[in-house]
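Feature request, filed as a ticket because there's no other form

It would be nice if the structure record came with a short human-readable summary line next to the tokens. Right now we just get the raw output. Example of a typical job, pasted below so the devs can see what we mean:
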Amino acid sequence: MDEARQADALLTEEGQELVNSLCPYEPAKAMALGENARRDHPAELVAAAMTQARLRTKALDRLGPQAADLWFTAAGLEQATRPEVASRRAAHLVAAGAKKVADLGCGLGFDAIAFAQAGLAVLAVEHDPVIAKFARANMDALHLSDRVSVMSADATAIDPPAHGCDAVFVDPARREAGRRIKDPQKWSPSWSKALALATSTPIGCLKVAPGIDHELPPTGSTTEWISSGGTLVDACVWLGAAADAGINRRAVVLPAAMSLDDSQLGAAVAVGELGGFLLEPDDAVIRSGLVAVVSEQVGGRLIDADIAYITCDGRPPASPLYAAFEVIEAMPFSLKSLRARVHALGIGRVEVKKRGSALDPELLRKQLRLDAKAARAAVILLTRIGRNPFAVIATRLP
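Raw output as currently delivered:
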């Protein structure tokens, strides 16, 4: 059964009931449930339904309760925008004055869902006809079909203004055969084509790889990096009326909804000796190049000009913008010396982090030969100062 016929079979009443009967997917029970299902349904349909049940169950952790009624592909779930990010993006479009948005490269429709739930009308375009079928089914499942029109077409052939759109969201494919495509001109659509689409209406948004070159977005745009729960999950370029005047780069940390931007940059950040506290900025802060803003906020300095570790002498306030550690001691890295100090300090549990170090944290943990009976816990931060590798023994602050 090819993918198109498989999708059609799953979306029948029989297929939907079968998928529902297999949810939540539990590996220990899957074989028995599958055998029972094959007594009443074709084997290929059962296999497809079990895959769908597994994906749907997995999606609950990432996408929340609404995932229980949605349709997925493995790649589509991996690339799905998290609801908190999609909701923020939708709110930004609404605040910019958008009424109808063209979601070009909509995939399974998770951004389109957020746009519609924010009150926008949506033209969702997906070139893969099978994925477009699932996107359409997802709109039906959430009763959003009156607000979202799903079209199977090449996004580059769409003229958003001709469809009544005053806003465009473009999400280029940035993977091929499971591998990330680093050159934006090799994305699909390419950077230049995607940018032309995103600027074809007064309001535009172009989703990009978090590692995007800061010089690539056009003058007058605002590039935003978003982390959620401590993980960098999204980056996009706001264009036209959606861009913020005077702001080129912004870091947003969710769920706290705290943000920094380059309008807050002051003098060049100082570099100095390690103090009593060490801060590791959130990845969104680091990727946006705004470590200096955090350093200024805490009265800190960098331990090395090329390493994103901030140090300060006084205890920093708790903040979602960084993880903070109180330094116990620091030393030039030597496995023998580090092992001796860890044992002497009565440390039996360690978390190993690194920045600017080539060492393998998991291997180091084994090489420390920790005493499981020792009650003290610590964090070991591997880094370098200048050309010299260093190890910092610390405790994590709340």
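Something like this underneath would help us a lot:
The chain has a mean pLDDT of 95.
The radius of gyration is 25 Å.
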